Amino acid sequence: MSISASLQNALTGLTASSKAAQLVSSNMANVMTEGYATREIELSSAAGAGSGGVRVDGITRSVDPVILADRRGADAELTEASTLSDYMTRLERAFGIPDDADSLNSRINDLETALISASSRPDSEPRLRQLLDSAVNLTDTLNGLSDGIQSMRLEAEKAIESAVGQLNTKLEAVHELNRDITQATVAGRSTAALEDARQVTLDAINELVPIRLMQRDNGAVAVLSAGGQVLVDSTAKSYEFTPVNAIEADMAVSDGSLDRISIDGEELTASQMSQLSGGKLSALFTVRDDMMVDAQSKVDAVARDLIDRFQDSAVDTSLLAGDPGLFTDNGALFDAADEVGIAQRISVNDAANPDEGGELWRLRDGMSALTQGNGGNSAILQAGAMVLTEQRSPSSTGVSDLSRTSSALASDVLSYFGVARQNVEADLSYAASKHTELTLLQMEGGVDTDQETQKLLLIEQSYQANARVMAVIDEMMDTILRI
């Protein structure tokens, strides 16, 4: 081998060692950087006519696509479970537990106690006032629960708008990164940093909508939802969502008062929406269109049960056909065909409320009584106390038709949300455990500092060997020149 060939070999070795040392340094420095994948140098022999040494073929990212896909699935599952758990926990907290003084169950018990107290002294204005206050507190609680449910629906509506905006931004970013990676690949430049950035962006998309990838030419990827809807390929999809400024209990997608996501002005069908399920975005739609609607139906069932019990002429003998009882639908007779949102509209009959121009004695003598009766007559008050404890089958479809008292119905509703919260927390716990295990598994394939340190020792030895060759050549050249 000639001196010049030996010099060339040593020089390429030094170059390769220097590049390898830079990669080790980069790996060690980015061990905790999100989306960073271990860099590996690709080398090959440069042997050929009149040449030799080692050639740097490129830099590769070390990523296990199977583990990465599994971890992304766990990410989406965790985000969905976390979103549902957050709303369900807040929902349960709003309803309270049976022992809470301001819970729905306690408010009904307070009404029953006030009815019993008033029936023992029907001529006592303070006791009648206490009865009125108990009834008002109960309707206020029902109104507040319904308002809170609709507020959470509106909050989910605004969160959907934000999520769709984030999704569009991230999809466009992936499209641009695909273009940059393709250009760099064609030009023979390293794409590792661009791929890191794309992985972080894809992870962010995956939390909103679970994704899967398909490889395209020159390092580009097509992004599909887990359900098969194309998100990014030759172009990036642009989704649209038009939020409302207020949500009422009777508003739904089915009647057009609430929107789904649209593309180019055309709303997605239910089937197309299901292709986006599994992440935060679908969880928010579940909150708006299912979880909170179900909650409203249950609080409506309690409100309707109260109205039905006290709208009975067997309880209030003063009532004529079309007259509302103690509890009304915004002052009017309740219409069974208009149950949705009744908890938001239920109110105490103004005829018995002095603050609204009524008279307290109507609590004793009947809502439709024209004149004050005998102060010692407790029949209507006793009937009211008895009807609350009467075993009745609710007429609402939002709860089971099992016969129970008014208080038991409220307790069942509260228990339902307690169980529902426990179920979503169990799903969250499972998703969190799965996410933790897969994240750790992915990290095991990431930067190993011990391995990188060993590489550095080998690189140092290689560098020293090539440097020694160049030193020997230098000595030989000096010797030749002195001859």
TrEMBL record:
Enumerate the spans annotated as Flagellar hook-associated protein FlgK helical domain.
89-312
- MF (Gene Ontology): structural molecule activity
Q: Which residues form the Flagellar basal-body/hook protein C-terminal domain?
A: 446-483
Could you give a single Gene Ontology term from the biological process aspect? Answer: bacterial-type flagellum assembly
Subcellular location(s) per record: Bacterial flagellum; Secreted
Protein family membership: Belongs to the flagella basal body rod proteins family.
Q: What is this protein called?
A: Flagellar hook-associated protein 1
Supply the source organism for this entry. Poseidonocella sedimentorum
